[in-house]
Design brief:
The longest helix is centred in the first third of the chain and has 30 residues. The protein is α/β, with parallel strands linked by helices. The protein contains 24 helices and 9 strands.
Length: 615
């Protein structure tokens, strides 16, 4: 009887891969701006949603699991049961609403791609604007007029969002959620994504806000001492770290980002298990304005044969803009961490290795945010951050970074929590009250309440709110940061260091990545650290004084000097393609060294061409 169940599992795996790959290939070309086949993508997305929501699957799966005799076969079928229990839509009316919702979001996305935003550059010229360019300008531009134009661009986008279909999508999402038996869409998403109720979520968020309230108020008071204008949203980021960002820029050029990522991950012992990775790393017109990582082919074992992952990820660097190298490097490490996760899931069905429910967003983001957390470590900076002359970043600049950023660590993490408070109230509003003016007022109200000032990244300019997969899920980033601090503390206690620690990659693969969504977020933490989920470690780091943070950094750098050289580490075991839209920039088909040299040379030529265009 097991043979019947095994055949069913194999066919289900194949059917899923076909519908998923088709949708993901169109997703990539649409979001990268290399295709205008919006209708094809919408149809593929609807077909994928219909597959995931098919209520006929569950009774057959349960019957097959009862027939199965081998433990691994039962596990694979159980993974699919969990997947369909999370995604099935039994009510035809709810299924119709989902189709309507996918079409409405596709239409909003298409209109958003046509929206032309502008801001000032450093020469005072009105230029094409993007979300990463505006964010970088707010953090790094010494020209207040440039910063004002960046914030104005965000507010223009916010107004466009509430005037061009987003509020109608909120209404549709609520109708769908209520048809599924939930209070509203926020309730639906929290329960689906994190297997917790909104009340349980806000116990955690309220606790974090309470633990960091004093630190935020103190930070704002210290900033106000520089002048009340420092607290204005267009000034805040620059007054916190703008000068430091400019000083850091020569030590982290984006031309070297790929090399730093490859070498750092190699020395950590991270492996991609023969995955194919496609990286699109620079910003351009028509490209989606947020980094992401998707896996068209999930990794899994099929009848004893390894199916390696196919993973696409993107960042939005602009080599000609001050601060873009650092932000682009952060995105590269973040999305590269996601890719490592999805390339290392070792279940016997593709349902265990994908980024949507039953995969917890907090669990998925823990993997990426742990990787990008390494970039702020003093020993990582000392090892990798070097200028064109090969000189290491000076201790004085690392100290200046800590002095600038540590006081606002709590502020930054509370910006993540802020989104959840806003979305909870947005979806709870009476339909007749959800007007553009009321929604924008609600955004400003929550910004002032959680941050003590209006946000330098206005709420409705955050792309996640517009996409149903990431809407009402932003809290996953904060829950992930809590787990990241627990994970960092475990490795530091056990090994004494993180940068170039070759035990980290294998441990993450065994305890965090391998099980995929076959284990809960808390279970993976227990597996590695022996401790359950807690907000306290993150709050302690946020509340740490500058003096304590600098003392830790000094000790970290001193310890690194005593360790023997890390060596080169093992190859990443991945086929890597770096593209810019349809253009192949570099790949490792000949060698890793050739890929890194080709990438660096191309980035330099790209930067020179951009400079010539602007001159």
């Amino acid at each position: 009887m097991s043979s019947i169940a095994r055949n069913y599992l194999n066919q289900l795996n194949a059917d899923y891969l076909q519908v998923h790959r088709h949708k993901e290939d169109l997703f990539w070309s649409t979001y990268m701006g290399t295709s205008d086949n919006q209708a094809g993508f919408t149809a593929a997305e609807q077909a994928y949603k219909a597959f995931c929501a098919d209520p006929a699957r569950l009774p057959v799966l349960r019957e097959m699991q009862a027939l199965a005799e081998e433990t691994e076969l039962k596990r694979g079928l159980g993974g699919w049961i969990a997947f369909f229990e999370c995604n099935v839509i039994e009510d035809p009316a709810a299924a119709a609403l989902m189709d309507e919702l996918v079409a409405a979001e596709a239409a909003l996305f298409a209109r958003r791609r046509e929206l032309k935003l502008t801001l000032l550059d450093e020469q005072g010229r009105q230029v094409s604007g993007s979300l990463p360019a505006a964010s970088t300008a707010l953090a790094a531009s010494a020209d207040e007029a440039v910063r004002q134009s960046a914030l104005a661009m965000f507010h223009t986008l916010e107004q466009w969002v509430v005037d061009n279909g987003y509020l109608e999508i909120v209404l549709l999402r609520n109708r769908f959620a209520r048809a599924m038996g939930y209070r509203d869409y926020f309730d639906y998403k929290v329960r689906k994504n994190e297997q917790m109720s909104p009340a349980q979520l806000f116990v955690v968020l309220d606790d974090f806000i309470a633990r960091t309230e004093q630190r935020v108020q103190q930070s704002l008071a210290e900033l106000a001492a520089k002048g009340e204008a420092a607290l204005l949203p267009h000034n805040l980021r620059y007054f916190v770290s703008g000068d430091v960002t400019r000083q850091l820029d020569p030590y982290v050029p984006f031309s070297r980002a790929l090399k730093d990522w490859v070498e750092s991950f190699r020395r950590l012992g991270i492996q991609y298990r023969d995955a194919t990775l496609t990286l699109d790393l620079l910003t351009r017109e028509g490209k989606y304005e947020n980094g992401f990582c998707h896996g068209p082919v999930p990794s899994f074992w099929q009848e004893g044969k390894w199916v390696p992952a196919v993973v696409n990820f993107t960042s939005l660097a602009n080599p000609s803009q001050v601060g873009s190298g650092w932000s682009g490097l952060n995105t590269l490490f973040h999305e590269g961490g996601h890719a490592a996760h999805f390339a290392n899931v070792t279940g016997n069905a593709p349902c265990f290795s994908q980024e949507f429910p039953p995969t917890s967003m907090a669990y998925a983001e823990t993997q990426s945010m742990f990787c990008d957390s390494l970039l702020d470590d003093a020993d990582w900076l000392k090892r990798y951050a070097r200028n064109e002359a090969g000189e290491a970043i000076p201790d004085s600049l690392i100290k200046a970074m800590i002095e600038a950023r540590q006081p606002f660590r709590a502020f930054n993490e509370r910006q993540i929590a802020l989104v959840s408070y806003f979305e909870r109230d947005l979806y709870a509003m009476a339909d007749g009250d959800r007007t553009p003016a009321a929604v924008l007022a609600l955004a400003r109200q929550w910004e002032r309440k959680i941050l003590g000032t209006e946000s330098p990244r206005p709420l409705l300019a955050i792309p996640h709110l517009l996409n149903q997969e990431s809407a009402c899920a932003y809290h996953g980033y904060l829950l992930a940061l809590m787990a990241v601090e627990q994970t960092r503390a475990y490795f530091l206690k056990r090994d004494g260091y993180l940068t170039d620690n070759p035990r980290i990659g294998p441990d993450l693969a065994a305890h965090f990545w391998g099980p995929g969504n076959g284990m809960t977020h808390d279970q993976t933490l227990q597996s590695l650290t022996g401790e359950g989920f807690s907000a306290a470690p993150l709050a302690r780091v946020c509340n740490q004084s500058v003096a304590d943070a600098w003392a830790q950094a000094q000790a970290c750098m001193a310890a690194a000097q005593q360790r023997p050289p890390a060596g080169e580490g093992a190859p990443l075991n991945a086929r890597i393609r770096v593209v810019h839209g349809d253009l192949l920039v570099a790949d490792n088909s000949h060698s890793e060294a050739a890929m890194l040299a080709d990438f660096e040379a191309w980035i330099r030529r790209y930067g020179e061409a951009e400079h010539a265009t602007l001159s």
